[in-house]
Write a structure and sequence with these properties.
419 residues; 23 strands; alpha+beta; BirA Bifunctional Protein, domain 2; homodimer
Chain lengths: 419, 419
């Protein structure tokens, strides 16, 4: 891909009104655009990152037997009245009456809708377990939107739901999801803290949160610097306490962001919505449910919070929008040999399976270097006249800032060995 | 993939209340589920079809230089007031006030939002042309929803937008889109009629509709049975007229469904929203816009309308959810040799790049044959005891109903030669 044919509107200056590094860099690197407070568009570069994260999530969901579907945004409010969550979530729910007088809402989550769907089809224990997931937009009427895409009115979530015959089935699916979540976050380059948590508005007994320490967080965790023990912060009394595992160490309080939350829901929804099945013994029983969410938009913000420097983003390999950026540098005007070489590298690296971006703009080397640091592609090939007279080009690692000089014929081979 | 591990809730009986064949088959084959009138979920099999169509669209959009982004569903009504379309589209627009008192609406289309985005970034003729597209959910407050996913309150569209310096640029991008649309529909197995059309609520001078004759249509076209001449039906006087090209032939009126509509918008939005750029001559000029829509959900319905028989759907190769279905048949209980062979074919065909479904349910051959006809996978491998004693299995073509007997060791080779 060529910069001039893509759409990467980087900003020369820091945007105003951003509290968080990730929010600032998302805007400045041309990844997102704000339509109105709490509502963002994903620009082509941001969408590429989103798609890479979605792909990791899909692979891990499919690996544990979850199947993808796509549920609607528009929900009849009637359905939410069955579980009483039209009241519980009243503050964040966007409601309206449609032209034919139906009370509708925009889905802030999908437990009610998936239960309604599964109960229409699943009648017998033979059809269980069923595990379904989607990646879909959610809506919340947030009064205090914050940190860009972190706490927004419209955001992208992966939500999965399991339906089982019994508690053993639920526990098995819960454990599979638990392990899948660990893999997903690890593949995104994130170290998560896993906390037993309160089930809140979701209901159910057991739940776990997947948190990443980051200044954009709105939650707190207590961490032991000696042994790595951590726990959620549920009240002021826990603050400054001792670590229960190594008695002398003091727990430190840290801000963290919640990226995932999984719940053993039990029968809350199946009872309220009459999602019954006939068991082997001929008895009518409520399905035993679990639900499993990941804030996909939040994952992007968390990655940037964790992986950046003063110059810009440093994408981990697995989620970078492009693998390699090629910078043809021109002292004045277009240098034919450099242009040709850039386009040859582009074609050969693409052929070799890499996703390659060429900054073909007629711009100064300075601007190109700054933008390359800003958008944070892991590896960079710099083609300049000074080195080219000796038959060399530079390869630069965005993270380590390490630069090596390579023979111009060895570029493909060298890069292939890196990736 | 195995049927027992997927989620394909086929219905034994026709659902009630469906006027259209496609609506009936979408429900019966377990492709979609109705949440409430005009609002549908895509089940895993339906989502696979949707993804295949989306992939064709993306490939053809990228081929003409359009870049994908993802715009929000929530729009500030303020933006729509600038173009006056809060009034023009008032009947179908879903509006609400959020918690902080902002007047918002759900996007029925995205001209206002994309213009707002592009004007923030594009300041100079050097940055033009810009062509962007998205595949995103749209919302319409339809009083009379019809034909399932055809006229719904929530539906999936591909919408592209071009921004040019001048009319020549617009015409060039319009022509590229025109050709891309022909390819997209052809690849979906659809013969489209292309009509010059009225620009309606979109505005602008020139527009073309891509229509497919189908009983679910809500438009009409006049067709000449002799020469293929066709035109839109704009008034009763045209009915029963003569074909202008072959003077003696009478035009016949036909119901058709609109799948695509492209518009040369000109400056309607850029003037109203002040989307100006500085041209080479230093003059401030409004960008010249085009917009290009495809009703993605509708494409699915149109394909089914065109490609089915009394037993079910017949998927064209390019959009089928699976390439091959394997039916292991059991007279009574599980036949080990048949189970093993089915799983071997599954693995080897998957290895060879096919998307394979095995109906591994413990069900009667009759039920399996009926469901296979219903879900309409193009090629079917039938493994039954009767043929297997002679070392043979059957390969059946869903469309032609042709059956050939093949040596059990020749299955992969034979199928590879078909596809």
């Amino acid at each position: 891909m060529y910069w001039s044919k893509f759409f990467i509107p980087t900003l020369k200056e820091d945007p105003i009104g951003t509290e968080a590094v990730s929010h600032r860099l998302l805007l400045r690197a041309g990844l997102v655009h704000m339509l109105t407070s709490g509502v963002y568009s994903y620009l082509p570069l941001g969408l590429k990152v989103l798609r890479r994260i979605e792909r990791i999530i899909r692979e891990e969901m499919e690996a544990v037997g979850a199947r993808e579907l796509f549920l609607p945004c528009l929900h009849p409010l009637e359905l939410w009245k069955k579980t009483g969550r039209d009241q519980v979530l009243a503050d964040v729910m966007i409601k309206f009456q449609d032209g034919r007088g139906r009370s509708m809402c925009l889905g802030p989550t999908h437990e009610e809708v998936i239960t309604d769907l599964v109960k229409d089809f699943v009648k017998s224990y033979r059809q269980l377990p069923v595990v379904l997931y989607q990646i879909q937009t959610k809506f919340r009427d947030e009064l205090r939107t914050r940190f860009g895409i972190v706490r927004a009115c419209e955001f992208i979530m992966k939500d999965a739901y399991s339906f089982d015959r019994d508690k053993e089935g639920l526990k098995k699916n819960y454990q599979l999801m638990f392990e899948a979540y660990k893999k997903i976050f690890a593949r995104c380059g994130l170290d998560t803290l896993i906390l037993e948590a309160d089930s809140g508005a979701m209901g159910g007994d057991v739940s776990h949160e997947f948190m990443v320490p980051a200044s954009i967080g709105e939650d707190h965790v207590l961490l032991c610097p000696s042994c790595g023990f951590h726990s959620g912060l549920h009240g002021p009394k826990e603050e400054d306490g001792l670590c229960p595992q190594c008695r002398k160490a003091t727990l430190t309080k840290q801000v963290a962001i919640e990226l995932g939350h999984i719940f053993q829901l039990g029968t809350k929804y199946s009872l309220a919505q009459e999602a019954y099945f006939l068991d082997e013994d001929g008895q009518k029983k409520p399905m035993i449910m679990g639900c499993y969410g990941i804030g996909v938009s939040r994952v992007i913000a968390a990655i940037i919070e964790k992986s950046h420097d003063e110059k810009g983003i440093i994408w981990p390999r697995q989620v970078t929008p492009f693998d390699i950026e090629i910078l043809p540098l021109h002292a004045s005007g277009q240098d034919e040999e450099i242009v040709t070489l850039a386009s040859r590298y582009h074609d050969e690296l693409t052929q070799a399976g890499f996703d390659v971006l060429v900054d073909d703009r007629e711009d100064t080397p300075g601007r190109k270097f700054n933008d390359a640091d800003l958008i944070g592609i892991p590896l960079r090939v710099i083609i300049g006249r000074k080195n080219l007279v000796n038959g060399k080009v530079e390869i630069k690692n965005r993270q380590t800032q390490e630069v090596i000089l390579v023979d111009k014929h060895e570029v493909i081979k060298t890069l292939s060995s890196f990736l």
